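Action item from last meeting closed. Structure (139 res):
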């Protein structure tokens, strides 16, 4: 993936600090310069008015805060407020019923946290850049 600077705003929510750091570094090394990380979906929603172009969401967001909403609940709220937001679910769930539900609720893409996460994320970001570039010329 090219590391041409890209001005798209990205929000990511993952309660695993190590994985969130991996995502932050990967995105910045891929040329995305406006990246913000949140430990819960609720914290992400507090700043959703900033209208991120891309949201990366984990499904399970309650390892630090037991009462935290899951990624599907956050996805629904993001899409309700800003339906054009490109939401990529990056999670360890692989159950087909849950994955179908995520797409029905508005997820744009789905990446499993496994040994292919880096290449799958790269592919997804190439795809989303092409889509967003078609909407505007921010990159």
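Sequence:
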């Amino acid at each position: 993936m090219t590391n041409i600077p890209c001005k798209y705003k990205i929000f990511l929510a993952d309660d695993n600090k190590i994985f969130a750091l991996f995502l932050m570094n990967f995105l910045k090394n891929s040329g995305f310069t406006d990246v913000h990380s949140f430990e819960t979906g609720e914290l992400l929603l507090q700043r959703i008015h900033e209208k991120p172009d891309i949201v990366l969401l984990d499904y399970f967001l309650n390892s630090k805060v037991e009462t935290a909403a899951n990624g599907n609940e956050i996805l629904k709220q993001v899409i309700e407020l800003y339906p054009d937001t490109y939401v990529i679910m990056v999670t360890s769930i692989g159950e087909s019923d849950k994955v179908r539900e995520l797409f029905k609720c508005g997820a744009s893409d789905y990446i499993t946290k496994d040994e292919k996460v880096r290449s799958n994320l790269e592919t997804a970001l190439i795809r989303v850049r092409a889509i967003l570039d078609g909407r505007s010329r921010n990159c």
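Note appended to the action item: The helical segments are 17-29, 41-46, 71-81, 96-104, 117-135.
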